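Hi there, hope your week has been kind to you so far. For a while now I've been wondering how a particular protein folds. I'm sending you its amino acid sequence along with the backbone structure tokens. Could you read through the record and tell me how the tokens relate to the sequence? Take your time with it, there's no hurry, and the full record follows here.
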Amino acid sequence: MTQILLINPNTSTATTRMMVDIARSYLASAVMSPPEVVGVTALRGAPMIVDERDLAVAADAVTDPEIVALAAQSDGVIVGAFGDPGIEALRARLNVPVVGIGAASVREAASGGRRFGIATTTPRLADSIASNVRKLGLDASFAGSRFTTGDPLALGDVPTQLERSLACAVEACLHEDGAQAVVIGGGPLGEAAQALCERFSIPVIGPVPAACRALLRSMRWGEVSK
């Protein structure tokens, strides 16, 4: 069976399970005979990537020999952190498609020339997020990022509060920044993204499904539904 490896660059196994569940659910609804999704969690680093130091550690962690060996046995790889840490190093080591949830979701949000924003929980990564948008050549369409307040880890422990806080950030992207689509920026925010997709009339892009769509296209899987 075709296999996709989803790498969680932080150390939370609960986040890995959540992202794998989202990917499996999306693939089951999107394609016939969906590929199997297997998750792997970084062996070192932080339980949530909240600053540049965490991002640098995650970039090294995703190229640990054990993870690279698993990736080499797969048919495609998803890097499940919004900063896409270590993705170029992985691509250099592998002969299979590798996509990151950050680039995939941002490209999807900007498709058709849409003005897009990013709603997330990690203000200390604001410069990194903006830099990654520039690297993709999409800064002209970027309305900016809106961040929740308070400790990201504590917020993530209260799903209802996380969803409410992110909804406020999405509203700010729309009504204050003029965004026509909004990315929910982070793998650990996957469940909240699923819920927020149903609450707004404009596209709210969940990063894990966006990465699945991008990977299926890279794997030439055929027709992929939104």
The two ends are 23 Å apart (CA to CA). The domain at 103-207 is CATH 3.40.50.12500 (Rossmann fold). The longest strand covers residues 3-8.
